[in-house]
């Protein structure tokens, strides 16, 4: 089974290594962190096809999953007013899970510290590696 993404549907992005969810921080509504999955609107993301890739928009505040700056190793993933285009690729070991990639680079969305389950672990861009800390299960809400 390959990725089956319904554009416009809501998903919780769950890290395959830690089981934590991509969580829009309640502190600033901008920082995106790994946090225990509870299914609140700050962990729900609407995935929208745009013709060139995918926008990932927060259900809580309508901001888009984006990079804080230029696409480099360690650049923070944040929620931003401006749409950002991502590519979603099935993982080679679990084709039901995705690698969320920055187009035209070797960067993917990565849960820092090798996929730590510690609440508040940063989510960042990193060069693609084989670890499950760069693999995300898209759980439809």
TrEMBL record:
<dbReference type="InterPro" id="IPR035992">
    <property type="entry name" value="Ricin_B-like_lectins"/>
</dbReference>
<feature type="domain" description="Ricin B lectin">
    <location>
        <begin position="8"/>
        <end position="78"/>
    </location>
</feature>
<protein>
    <recommendedName>
        <fullName>Ricin B lectin domain-containing protein</fullName>
    </recommendedName>
</protein>
<dbReference type="Pfam" id="PF14200">
    <property type="entry name" value="RicinB_lectin_2"/>
</dbReference>
<dbReference type="InterPro" id="IPR000772">
    <property type="entry name" value="Ricin_B_lectin"/>
</dbReference>
């Amino acid at each position: 089974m390959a990725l089956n993404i319904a554009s416009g549907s809501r998903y919780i992005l769950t890290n395959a290594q830690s089981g934590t969810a991509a969580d829009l921080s309640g502190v600033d509504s901008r920082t995106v962190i790994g946090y225990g999955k509870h299914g609140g609107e700050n962990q729900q993301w609407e995935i929208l096809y745009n013709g060139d890739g995918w926008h990932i928009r927060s259900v809580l505040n309508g901001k888009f999953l984006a990079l804080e700056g230029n696409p480099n190793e360690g650049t923070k993933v944040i929620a931003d007013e401006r749409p950002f285009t991502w590519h979603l690729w099935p993982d080679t070991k679990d084709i039901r899970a995705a690698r969320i990639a920055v187009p035209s680079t070797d960067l993917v969305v990565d849960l820092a510290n090798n996929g730590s389950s510690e609440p508040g672990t940063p989510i960042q861009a990193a060069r693609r590696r084989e670890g499950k800390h760069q693999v995300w299960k898209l759980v439809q809400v």
